[in-house]
Amino acid sequence: MQGEGLKRFKIPIVPPTTNKCIRFPNDVIERVEDSIKEKDCTFSAFVVEAVRVALCNLEEEKDMKD
Q1: C-alpha 45 chain-centroid distance
Q2: Between 26-36 and 43-65, two packed helices, what is the crossing angle to 10 degrees?
Q3: How far apart are CA 49 and CA 54, in angstroms?
Q4: What is the DSSP letter of 37?
Q5: Is a pLDDT exceeding 90 seen at residue 59?
Q6: 14 CB-near residues (< 8 Å, 6+ apart)
Q7: What per-residue confidence (pLDDT) applies to 49?
Q8: Is the distance from CB of 46 to CB of 32 less than 8 angstroms?
Q9: Is there a contact between 35 and 46 (Cβ–Cβ < 8 Å)?
Q10: pTM to 2 decimals?
C-alpha cells in the first residue's frame, strides 16, 4: 500500500530508565489520578513530564539571571 502520508516504520528507541521510589502526599496522588483519568497516560509518565517541565523552567530562570 503506497500513497500520500505513508509513514515508514522505525523501531522506537526506549531510553534507559532507573526505578526510584518516592513518596507523594495523598492529595497530590489524587489530583494526578483525577487529571489522567480516561486519558492514555500513566502516573509515571505524568510525573516524568512534570519533572521535565520543572527542570526546563529552572534552566530558563537561571539563564535569565545570568
Answers
A1: 4
A2: 100
A3: 9
A4: T
A5: yes
A6: none
A7: 95
A8: yes
A9: yes
A10: 0.74
